[in-house]
Structures are given as structure tokens and as C-alpha cells.
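User: Predict the complex with guanosine-5'-diphosphate.
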Amino acid sequence: MFDNLTHRLSGVIKTLRGETRLSENNIQDALREVRLALLEADVALPVVKDFIARVKEKAIGHEVMTSLTPGQALVGVVHQELIAIIGGEKADLNLATVPPAVILMAGLQGAGKTTSSGKLAKWLMENKKKKVLLVSCDIYRPAAIHQLELLANQVGADFFPVEEGQKPGEIGAAALDYARRHHHEVMIVDTAGRLGIDEAMMQEISELEALLRPIETLFVVDAMQGQDAVNTAKAFSDALPLTGVILTKLDGDARGGAALSVKHITGKPIKFAGIAEKLTGLEAFHPDRMASRILG
Ligand code: GDP
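Assistant: Here is the predicted structure with guanosine-5'-diphosphate placed in the model:
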């Protein structure tokens, strides 16, 4: 992913040899290459524009330290701004509330919500020693409820048994009561995802949010979605008070643009990355590592 950026930059950096400071003129070619590389990587246009403007502002007049070539200095600025746009500091999961801390999973069908719910339960049990309850409100797809139950069994988390005919709100309320009585510290709620954004789905998840008052509402998005991720992110962030993002399928051949766009559009940090299908394939997201990976 982004092989292009390093490759393209290495070409133009040579043209900066001999310059003592970066100027509007001498960085133009380099910025054009960065812009093209980002567009090819499926980063949304408004995000690219903003990024280029930031790099330009930081780079122009930048005194080149004697130990660096101007090309290296520019790459340094691009690197710093990549980290900033991907999210700056690493953002931790917030669990600071009266238990159970509710985590609501939102996103389109196929984004990886159910798998990520199971992975997150495992992560919380192993890394934070939490007692976790998994709950599915996806009443439209009994297979999805069953899938979550299987995942709960695999990771050794508790699973809330749904009764036939229960509505999502009823499941949520009953699960909350169950979690309180059984002293669960975290309750992860998987929700229904449709293939596209629709009002009924947004209404349903908003009602669940209002009822459960989750400390974390995580938007789960498939890195392979590219440009489409932007529209989805916008719709979910308009409808719900998101607190963070899980970016899935980073192990695929995604061009990675979603990582840059999603934080920019939602204003919320990417907290976890899905890096494999298997249950150990979830890790805390580090913006600086992602930026290094992008630059190569
Ligand atoms: P949901 O409809 O949002 O609940 O999506 P699922 O959790 O059912 O995931 C859809 C598909 O994506 C499944 O085949 C998962 O195994 C796969 N998947 C989810 N996360 C990842 C990931 O990080 N990497 C890979 N390679 N596959 C993933």
C-alpha cells in the first residue's frame, strides 16, 4: 500500500538537491507527486487538498537543518502531517464508567462488525482482564446472531441469549440488566448492518444508542471500501455520537486511503485495526506506525 508515495517522492527529491531552503517553487513538483499518490491510494479529494495545504504551509520557509538534505526535510514534513491526519496520538479505548461499559458496534453489513466484536472481546479479556458479555441485536439475520455466539464460545466470552421475536431495543435493555446482574465489566453490542445506508437502520441504531448510552460507539469500516468509506463514515457520524473507529481488513490489498479519510471525515480516532480474519487479528491502532508503513 502506498508504495507509490515513497517511489514518487524519491524521484522528485533528487530535484531538490542543492537547494538550501524549501520554497513554494521548488516543492511544487514534489507536492504534485504526493497528491497523485494519495489520489491513487483512494484518499478522498477534500482530504488530499487539506493534506497538501498543510504540508505546503509547514514546508515553505522551513530551514533545512545542516544534517538533512532539502529532500529529506520535505519527506519529514510529509511524514509528520501523515501522522497528524491519521490521528496524531494513539487513542485508547475508554472504559471509565460504572460497569458494564457498553461498546456499540456500528457499520455496514460485511464491514467486519461481528468478527471485530469477537476479536475485541478477546482483546479485552486478555489485555485488560475484563469480564465481557457479547450481545447481538441483528434480528434480521439469525445467522449473524449464531455467528456471534460461536465467536463468544471460541474466545470464552459470555453470550446473551436472544429470545425469539425480541426487538433490538428489548434485547439491549434485557442484556444490560443481565450484564448488571452477572457483573460483566464490558458489554459489546453488535448491531444490524445493511448493504447501504438507510433511514430505518440509522433510526434503529440511534434508538439503541439513546437507550444504552454506550461509553464507546465504534464505527467499523472496511479499509477496502476506498472512496465509499467516506460517504459511509459521514452518514454514520452524522447519525451517531461516534467515539472511535475500527478499520478492518488492513491485511488485504487495500490501498489504504480509508485510513486517512475516515479520521478526517468523522473527526474521531481510529482505535483498532483488523489485520487478519482470525480472532487474534485485531490490534490497537498506532497513527505513527501507519504513517511509517505508508511512507515505506
Ligand atoms: P459484519 O456483517 O459487519 O458483521 O461483518 P463480518 O464480521 O461478518 O465480516 C465480514 C467478512 O470479513 C468475514 O468473512 C470476516 O471474516 C472478514 N473480516 C472481518 N475483519 C477482517 C480483517 O481484519 N481481515 C480480514 N482478512 N478479514 C476480515
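The first helix runs from residue 3 to 13.
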